[in-house]
Amino acid sequence: MQMTMTCAEESRAAEETLAGTFKPADTFFLIESGLPDYGGWGAGAVKTAATGGPFARYLAHLQSAPRGKVLFIRRPQSQGKNFYIALTNQATPRIYHRALADYDELLGLDIASLAAGMTPRVNGREMTEIDELYIVCANGRHDPCCAALGAPVYQEMAAQAGPERIWQTTHIGGHRMAATMIAFPAGIVYGHIDPPDAEAIVTNQRAGFMLTHKYRGRGAYAGHQLDEAAHKAACAAEASIRERIRSYRIDDLRLDAVEEIGRDVWIVRYIDAAGRAHSAEVSIKMSAPRQTSCGDPPKPMPQHDVSLLSTPV
Q1: Which end of the chain, N or C, is less packed with Cβ atoms under 10 Å?
Q2: Residue span of the structural domain in which 100 resides
Q3: Is residue 192 part of a domain?
Q4: Is this prediction's pTM over 0.90?
């Protein structure tokens, strides 16, 4: 009897390149809720909640923020209404927290202040800045790989970072790369995470470093106004440049420019801490057919081909 691989097993077996697989977002809104009015976390929890019911008006307000991303979060035994905002721009990433008395307070969030870089206010009161937070996709109703691989990573992250700093989340995207997670405030997105990776992720995060071999991408690069394709190309180039020059400190590489020179081809330039420029050419090619989600028919998917052009060492 022939065994069929899950989408995550297939992605790992193919050694799928992770860098450049995360859709960009400037601002993340994390809302604690088990969504009891919607039957729990369904396959498309955020989309379902946005179409009607009590959460629709809250999400409409939050999603008015440019390039905002809303995620529902939960943890065992917690029944609160915790709310976080992560501003993941490159220069000064921040994450803020507020324990809501009622979800109606979300309507009192001043969206305009976020783009101005101000401390978020809810009903006139400033939210509290915190130092770190992690979210792991564990929504098995979206894809079984997220629960099977995400749940044990969540448990180990709680042991390494502390249970108050880790949440399960509905759907980050790219479940074939499960377990997948985001480390805030910088918004570093990781994939193919296993429980033994948790200690390295937390240790490096607290020291200001990142893991390039598990890196999928990060929150949007402020000021560059990149579309999705260019942003993914920038993240793909970033991983290759960092590995070439052995630069893993998050703040030691700054995106300088992304120039599209042809159809699905970009020149990406970064500047390191010493002021030296590092460039790469990034093009998109199609992979062999593979599952994007468990049970879906295989199809080719875009993948990035990175050629380093100028990387002084």
Answers
A1: N
A2: 1-225
A3: yes
A4: yes
Residue 7: phi and psi, rounded to 5, are -65, -35
Structural domain total, the chain: 1
Domain membership of residue 312 (yes or no) is no
Sign of CA pseudo-dihedral 258, 260, 264, 267: negative
CB neighbourhood size of 179 (10 A): 30
The tokens describing 25, both together, are: 């977002």
Tokens of 248: 């893993």
Q: Is the dihedral of CA 79, 80, 81, 87 positive or negative?
A: negative
| pLDDT tens sequence across 40-69 | 777 788 888 888 888 899 999 999 888 889
For position 166, which CATH number holds?
3.40.30.10
**Is residue 171's pLDDT more than 90?**
no
Cα–Cα distance for residue pair 185/93, rounded to 1 Å: 5
Residue 51 resides in a domain:
yes
For residue 144, being part of any structural domain is answered with yes
Alpha carbon distance 134, 164 (integer Å): 10
At 196, list the tokens.
Answer: 């033994």
